[in-house]
Task: structure prediction
Amino acid sequence: MSSKRIYAIFLRQFFLLKRSPSRIMQIFYWSLLELTLWGIITKYLYAIGGEKFGFITVILGTVIFWNFFTRVMNGITISFLEDIWSRNLINLFASPLRVGEYIAGLLAVSIMQTFLAIGAMVLAAWFFFSYSIFQFGFLLIPFIFILFISGWALGIFTTAVILRFGPSVEILVWSIPTIIMPFSAIFYPLEALPTFLRPISYAIPISYVFEGMREVVHKGTFNALSLAIGFALSFFFFFAAIAVLFVMYRMALRKGLFTRFMTD
Result:
């Protein structure tokens, strides 16, 4: 893999972002809007007697972590879609660029966009709602790590599916996070789900992050085994997504499917 080609992919997205106010706004707008909405709701719940349930800590923490996950994913998928929309994808892969280098460049873009968006959310939460995500201390490290790897896995998998089936399935970029949301134990514990749905939640790595966050808030402890399972699952899906991507890429090359990205 060439570090120069990886950097070129990152630099291209950076310049697109730098020269487009609408793209910059897209990074911050929805995250800050969602934070503001839930922040006001939690303040109201706190005011009517919900302080003993830790509404502010749980809900605002949940909103920040969920946005972290989706921003990591979108850093890959939206950048990929931009290459499709600009009819540039086939030009990239007609060059010496390898698919692994392309994805590595998008991972770097994902890191940049995620920390920009979440940094703004963390500052806004502290300034407007006196909420600090850093209250979780060193547990932030495994939480963030699992969210990062899981977001990358989902982003790479979605990219692979679009490579195989074409731009007509690009709606998956927005629908897949919504599909897994009910099973991720974001706003409620796993026990709230029907029994027959819980195995799905146990297979989703980020559910262990949200369960762990609530356990820290309500009990002051955390389950190291659960976090270890979250780590293992996130890495499993990450490497599985990479394998699927390479299979779909070779299939697209063999069947000439890249021509769809010039006409669709």
Observations:
- DSSP finds eleven helices and no strands in the chain.
- The chain has one domain: 3-263.
